[in-house]
Fold:
Amino acid sequence: MPRNIITPSIQYIHNLYAQPDELLVSISSELEKRNIAIQVGAEEGRMLQILIALHGAKKIVEIGTLAGYSTIWMARALPEDGHIYTINKDPEHVKMAEGFFILSECSKKITQLTGDAHKILPDLVEKAPFDMVFIDADKISYPAYLDWAENNIRKGGLIIADNTLLAGMVAEDRPPDGIPPARWKGMRLFNERLADKNKYNATIIPTKEGLSVAIKMF
Ligand code: SAH
Ligand code: DHB
Ligand code: MG
Structure:
């Protein structure tokens, strides 16, 4: 479901709080042109910035870079000595993101790691513990990414994940038509794990796609 269809209320938030600058606008245009505009909305970019500021997060892992739209929103919220490691699989996306990072003023806060997250994440363990993980890659792997986050973010750290409502489909009692059942089941499992009050202080911010926010309590 395209993110660029926005309601008047979202437009109002954009105008007041979440105006993308020229660079972010050019990323969105490039993604539109390529028909892969699945980046977060500007209001979600702004939300990520607020969460980073509230939390004082300095060391972040992002799983799923696309063209670096969310990465640049997040990097801009980091302090000078903050860093974001962002994992990107598709070589075309890697090239695109690299180009935009170079154009940004925050490229020294960003390291793009190229390849499948399942292969890259074990290498990142040596840089753990992290303050925050933002999960936004292949939906079926969310439970596996949560396994990694549980082991590699600090106690009190933040786990944020996009698309956890599957545009509303996750709320159906059974996998609806038009979605692979394994993807639906994986997301249900992911959400149920974060709902464990003994482990997490969590909720889903009800954006159209759903943005999970969880504080790891252990
Ligand atoms: N976070 C981005 C959007 C990410 S879209 C933004 O909001 O701007 C999902 C991205 O995850 C795509 O670039 C896709 O290539 C990547 N991806 C999908 N599966 C992956 C995997 N297993 N490992 C690493 N990256 C993956
Ligand atoms: C898709 C992926 C996303 O991360 C997103 O925000 C929207 C759609 C997708 O793979 O279709
Ligand atoms: Mg997403």
Remarks:
- Residues 38, 136, 162-163 surround magnesium ion (ligand 3) (CB under 6 Å).
- The mean pLDDT is 96.
